[in-house]
Design a protein that fits this description.
236 residues; Alpha/beta knot; 6 strands; alpha/beta; six-stranded parallel β-sheet; homodimer; 12% strand; 10 helices
């Protein structure tokens, strides 16, 4: 699936820049702008930060149709919930459903984001194959356009790269158990009463398992416990 | 769980306003600002849109400690990945893991977002119980502070309210089957060849099931198919 972000008549440079930055954050690079109401100048570049090139390479077209000519699927975004389930036009999917639907698509998927003041019109939504809406509190549904873009692009990133933990190399069960056994020995050397000791050992295991602790964290703790035992035994 | 959003030395009014707006979008209302480097004036109000009241009611404090005095857990955000898994300070969880960890907490959870220019310092992260990092492309990790806030608040909203589809009342299997039977009758009346007819009926069922169609959509389609049959039969 290849994504094309289509901003329809954006009114503020800052938002165009913010969307470009988010696209780079989540590794998308094709930005189209339909009839912009803003110059796409210095302010867009400032908000884009390290994604200025995406603003510069944005494809500008006069009408929406041009941006949708060659796409496999066009998805419009809206914050306006249908008042009745009978409203077929605004029968929207969540960003997560959107990612599941478009994930297997080979061609280009266009994600349309509307003007800051009033979003996409009914006519524009009718051009779309699918309508996406982000779940929010009912009392304030309208997200800023860049906020909406960020959430949908984040969900797409997750669906493509998984939401696995990136930064923690989990300790295996054996090293967790070894640490807990050492902790038990420490309790013994520290003359903790047996019933307290059993509870404390279980508490320590609970915390390690629930966290769960990384292998680095486990080995750092192991070092402390081991050395404490050695000191208690008067080994140095 | 009660959430407190803590902006640490924000540098731009627009971002404070954007974070306030996102908080209202996702139904959080407690904003603290530590030593702001920006006036929190008209521009913050403009970006806050219908959440101006959150900017006005923001609690201002001089040092981070004051914002963390009474919390159950403080979570810092960072885009800076540890270079080695041995880095214990920046061993971060994803926003999804964050929501799972803080969901069962009864007290206040503080979510810290750093300055636009350089995020949270190591000292500030050391004050935190937990570090959260949003998965992004490696070539451009740094999200705008409001974008980061939006994604974490969105995940919290989902974890609290479910990510069920909000807008579609799914058709039950019986009404989908009724529609498909009618479509089969239409094929018959339209003199579609039998082998084509079987394939077309299956294709139609596939599309309806894979979508899946809502009850309103199904009944609208049923109306068309039924009336087409009647017309073909010359009933009116």
């Amino acid at each position: 699936m290849h994504l094309r972000v289509v901003l329809v008549e954006p009114e503020h440079d800052g938002n165009v820049g913010s969307v470009a930055r988010l696209m780079k954050n989540f590794d998308f690079d094709e930005l189209w702008v339909v009839n912009p109401q803003t110059p796409l100048g210095d302010e867009a570049a400032a908000f884009a930060s390290h994604a200025k090139n995406l603003v510069q390479s944005a494809v500008r077209v006069d009408v929406l149709d041009e941006a949708l000519k060659d796409v496999s699927l066009a998805a419009g975004t809206t914050s306006i919930l249908p008042k009745r389930t009978a409203n077929v036009l605004r029968t929207a999917v969540t960003p997560e459903e959107f990612t599941r639907i478009v994930g297997p698509i080979k061609g280009t998927v266009a994600l349309l984001l509307g003007r800051e003041s009033k979003g996409l019109t009914n006519l524009e939504l009718e051009e779309c194959d699918l309508v996406v809406s982000i779940p929010t509190a009912y009392h304030y549904r309208a997200l800023n356009v860049a906020s909406a873009a960020g959430i949908v692009l984040y969900e797409l990133w997750k669906s493509q790269h998984g939401s696995r933990r990136l930064y923690i190399e989990e300790a295996d069960r054996a090293s967790r158990r070894r640490l807990v056994e050492m902790f038990d020995s420490l309790c013994e050397e520290a003359l903790i009463l047996p019933y307290k000791r059993r509870l404390a050992v279980r508490a320590f295991l609970n915390v390690l398992s629930r966290a769960p602790a990384s292998s680095r964290e486990t080995s750092l703790l192991l070092g402390v416990v081991r050395q404490s035992i050695q000191r208690l035994k008067g080994e140095f």
